[in-house]
Structures
1.
Amino acid sequence: MEISELVKIAHANAVAKGFYPEGQKKELGTLLMLVVSELGECLEADRRGKWAIPDEAWYNLDSQTVSQNDKNAWFEKEIKDSVQDEIADAFIRLADMCGYYNIDIDSQIRAKMDYNATREKLHGKKY
């Protein structure tokens, strides 16, 4: 999935699930703190030693092979609340925010990576 596609899907899902009531504005700070909260949950998952070891085959099964209920049960058992799950949540929150603010994050990432390639080691810092 391309990042621009993730942005569209994540924001459309957030709208559909009621996170953007009509006429209600969302502040950047609120959306950023939702990302931070997911990263905090990721830290807690690591502290609990909750790392998912997913079976890649499950990701590629279509609904004709396995029911959505079975996929959900597998997800809840193997992945939910793991480090990987919380990282995914942070990406989804960032994608949603980019959709809300109409940020072309593909172009921004390319520009930033091109710039970073020219910077000195550790960008001139200790770490």
Note: Residues 36 and 90 are 8 Å apart (CA to CA).
2.
Amino acid sequence: MNKQQHDARRKDRFLHTCQHFNGVQNETCALGISYDHVGDDRLLPCLPPFRSGAKQPTDCTQFKAQTEQQFADWETGIKESLAKIMRARTAIVDRIESSGDESGEISPCPVCAAGALRYSRASNGHVHAACTTAECVSWME
């Protein structure tokens, strides 16, 4: 699958997901409607099937598809989040290379300039980091 096909598939899945879907970690959607359990399969009426031949989800009278604008807003948010993470990660790698410290804190945070960016790098090179400002950056690789 090339990038164009992948992007089209991601958009299609988004547009066919209910606005009330709030994640598989929950027992009910945002409206309080229970996700049905059938045997070992969890039927999620809020989502299209993930693979060809998968069971179609049960019908939900409250299903409300995502809109093109919601998709555009979601994509913009993802791009902005990734740009912030890359800015923070670059600062962390620069700090590790200059100081040799595999964990520490960068203050002020290079993203929000208000909080402190706490980080650690695992032996496999993966960086875990979070800013003390709640809405800034936080990730694990």
Note: The radius of gyration is 20 Å.
3.
Amino acid sequence: MTDKTLFCDSIRALQAQYDHDSQWSNALAALFPNERFSGIYDNSKVNNALLHILQIQLDDAHAESWIEYFCYELSFGRKYKFGNVTVGGLNIDLSSPENLYDYLISLNKTK
């Protein structure tokens, strides 16, 4: 398995867990609209650990992490639109884990 494949599989696993957790949260909220379920079902520690390992591996463990941006702001690339991510006037395609990996590798080559 290549590093890129492992990275992309890990991002997709995070996405699947995030989507699963969201579905459960929405279902609980629909069933019990007057209740708060904060902390009952919390995978954040495991998710954050995997995210941190990926950030360390790709030298992205800083306040403006591209991996976190991709996962949370771009909803794992689903909210990406051409032109909404630019650096130095150049479009950065963050529509997939593969593109994110390639971009991070290109950043590391310029260091």
Note: The mean pLDDT is 91.
4.
Amino acid sequence: MTRRRSRGYTVVELMMALAVFTAGVTGIIAMQRSVVAANRHARNVTVANGIAQAWLDQLAVDSSLWRTSLDQTAWLKTLNDAGTDGVWQLPAPSIATERNFGPTFNLFGAPTAGATDFCVHVRLTWLYPDELRGGRAGSGSIRTDVRVFWARDGGTRVAADCTSNAAATIADVGVDANDSYFFVYQTGAVAQHP
């Protein structure tokens, strides 16, 4: 009876298997990094869309106070100021206890004073003037644009981007010449309640 010799793996075969395994693991790690970055960006876009929609809803609620004059409203009344029609502005935080809403939001999309994860600018434009501006009584309407922005990884933020209502600061954020921000825009309209 002849004995069969058991044969093992050679060093060359082991090295080849190790090289194939290392290439596969390296590819998986590289792919995982890009998947994590894509998921973070998708989450930020989702949160920013929610913030923009919440602002449009707040402006719609604000319009329910607009009977004869914009003075009773929290944010729409800024159209009473000269030079604000159709201009991006940083909305003032509403300190009323029933609203507790402002231009700054944390990473989870909650309105938080002083947070800089997400910031909001609002642009109000007359579509049809109310009676105080030469229109028909009770028929005023305003276009509401909301832009939510957040800093890119490694981007250089504009100083006071979430706190300054200066036209130059807001313009610098909007130009985004150095690709420092991501933006989400949403548009709506509100009407006067006669």
Note: The chain has two helices and five strands.
